[in-house]
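Risk register update: the risk of archive-format incompatibility is retired. Evidence:
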Amino acid sequence: SITISPELFEKLYLSPENKVKGNLRKTFGNPTPVALVGFVVALSPLSVELMGWRGATVNADVSGRGANYFFGGLLLVMSALLEFLLGNTFPAVVFFGYGAHFLSFAATFQPFYAAISSYTTDGSQTQTPGFAASFSFYALFMGLLSLIFLICSLRTNIVFVLIFTGATLGFGLAAAAFWSAAKGLAIAATLLKATGGSFFVAAMCGWYLLAVIMFATLDLPFLAQLPVGDLSTLIKGQSQKKK
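Archived output:
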């Protein structure tokens, strides 16, 4: 068996080291980078579409398909189950939460579920003020969930903090964009672009974190030492302070 430092443990599992029974972490592989693959591949195209790069647009008929189901939803939920079995509560909750989000987002914009067409008289996928006003509350509370994750991540690393910062701002701006769209305000388009920018920051930080974990896993010379700004030993836990 190999003993790893608290800094390396946090880098690999995105959580301060905790004591659990058994040796499952030494028996099975690390599911954390699998979740990051799902997160970045699902979020990166969406963020670019929201910003309108090179003429890309978000289409309600297709944006709920593909990557959101099989990368964002499937990989994150699978990884969450494995993190749960390894005793890594925080990453498990994060991956379950965002995995469910990608599945919910995909289902909302999938015509089969009629989440949008139920608000129209002709059964089309045209987003009505009623739908926009209602969906904004979903974005708002996803922002609240991301804010809780952001506060918890202060005991992990700076890159993880930046991911949750981008996600929190992105969901908050998305809520504002949908509310503005419901009111017919022109600023809605600008807010959606800002949403894409915030999500893009989260996605790029996710790509960096994925690379760092994979390089550390394979113990690549030089690259294995890429920094993430470890905070697990800098910010002491409540139990550590009592001791």
